[in-house]
Design goal:
The chain is of the alpha/beta class. The protein folds into 2 domains: about 220 residues, 3-Layer(aba) Sandwich (Isopropylmalate Dehydrogenase), CATH 3.40.718; about 140 residues, Isopropylmalate Dehydrogenase (3-Layer(aba) Sandwich). The protein contains 11 helices and 12 strands. The radius of gyration is 21 Å and the shape is globular. It starts with a strand and ends in a 5-residue tail after the last helix.
């Protein structure tokens, strides 16, 4: 008799549309588990952390929160940021607190073009486009190093230093990750994003490590592209891309560009991975709390649902992950689109369409 495999997931919807899209993703995963004939199940625990929690406690999360999270199989995150808390306080107090302390050093951000969703790129109408941004997620420009000083000298005299950190170890592990990922893809190519013409210390180390690691992967094509040129390439020659590896800030910016090219920030998925599995990994849409549309029920749930598919991959449920992706494509392809991608459907309509496509799929597991 087969036993049910239960995955324990900590959900942190946090702020704004984060709550709407996490709820949508949970429903999709529960529907998937419900049709698995007892093969697997999800055991959810929701944490109330975020900007409302801050308003009550002065903290973004429980001081013992990391301890509470560390034994979960994964974390499913919404988005953080609201007007009552400065953005750097909310981000560092919750999301970066988790990614940094759980050493989630690899951030995977696929750029997917969906049927029925119009891309602002004319090229996307006739060219198959599909690439993934691999973001170094533990150091670089978001290492949190620096400080502010000299405000005592009076108005206009304060200084601030924000230091980017590049370690050989940090560069090497993200590059090896990118090369291994490239080997699993049809086009085996890694594009390294650099700015070593201007940033002569950190980015030169980045380039040197890239060139050294590349020698171990002779079957994978490589290129090294300056970040400014890469932003142009995303638009003019995206068919040349397969795996794009970049530092924390560069990848953050480029992946938003990628999702905008695919049609909307609301479509973009991401996985913050601790590849050694010493800590739980965290899955979240790329977008923020979208205060302009929060509470209206019109947010696009696809970024969060596609992030849930990445979580299924992390659990080894690859067939199920592909089923969720196929259900997303079936929903968009049949015109279930929220306003950000030119439709009139709301969050609920799109979620329901995805669940329906999932549970009607002939390959029900
Ligand atoms: N990972 C995170 O938690 C994260 C990421 C980015 C920004 N933020 C925070 O979110 C807040 C708002 O930031 P912002 O406005 O720069 O970025 P944002 O991603 O929240 O919104 C940018 C634009 O994209 C749209 N958008 C975002 N998600 C959408 C969705 N699911 N469906 C449809 N449209 C969507 C918004 O309506 C807005 O027009 C800030 O406090 C910021 O610090 C958090």
């Amino acid at each position: 008799m087969s036993t049910t495999q239960t995955f324990s997931i900590a959900s942190i919807p946090a702020d704004g549309v984060g709550k709407e899209v996490v709820s949508a993703g949970r429903r999709v995963l529960d529907a998937l588990a419900g049709s698995s004939n007892g093969k697997f199940a999800f055991d959810w625990t929701e944490f109330p952390w975020g900007s409302e929690y801050y308003a009550k406690t002065g903290l973004m999360m429980d001081p013992k929160g990391l301890e509470a999270l560390k034994d979960f199989d994964a974390i499913y995150f919404g988005a953080v940021g609201w007007e009552n808390v400065p953005d750097h306080v909310s981000l560092w107090g919750l999301r970066l607190n988790i990614t940094q302390n759980f050493d989630q050093w690899a951030n995977i951000r696929p750029v997917k073009f969906l049927p029925g969703v119009q891309s602002p790129l004319r090229k996307a109408d006739t060219t198959e486009l599909d690439w993934v941004v691999v973001r170094e997620n533990s150091e670089g420009e978001y290492a949190g190093l620096g400080g502010r000083n000299l405000s005592g000298r009076g108005p206009g005299n304060e200084v601030a230093l924000q230091t980017a950190l590049f370690t050989e170890k940090g560069c090497e592990r993200i590059m090896r990750f990118a090369f291994e990922l490239a080997r699993t893809r049809t086009v085996k190519k890694v594009s390294s994003v650099t700015k070593s013409n201007a940033q002569q210390y950190g980015m030169v180390l980045w380039d040197e490590v890239f060139n050294r690691v590349a020698l171990d992967y002779p079957d994978v094509q490589t290129e090294s592209v300056l970040v400014d040129a890469m932003s142009a390439k995303f638009i003019l020659k995206p068919e040349d891309l397969s795996v794009v590896v970049a530092s924390n800030l560069n990848a953050d910016i480029l992946s938003d560009l990628g999702s905008a090219l695919a049609g909307s920030l609301g479509l973009a998925a991401s996985a913050n991975l601790n590849p050694e599995r010493r800590f739980p990994s965290m899955f979240e849409p790329v977008h923020g709390s979208a205060p302009d549309i929060a509470g209206k029920g019109i947010s696009n749930p696809i970024g969060a649902i596609a992030s849930a598919a990445l979580m299924l991959d992390h659990f080894g449920l690859h067939e199920e992950a592909r089923k969720v992706e196929a259900a997303i494509e079936a929903a968009t392809g049949s015109g279930h689109l929220t306003r950000d991608v030119g439709g009139e459907a709301n969050t609920e309509d799109v979620t329901e369409a995805i669940i329906k496509a999932l549970t009607l799929s002939p390959a029900t597991v």
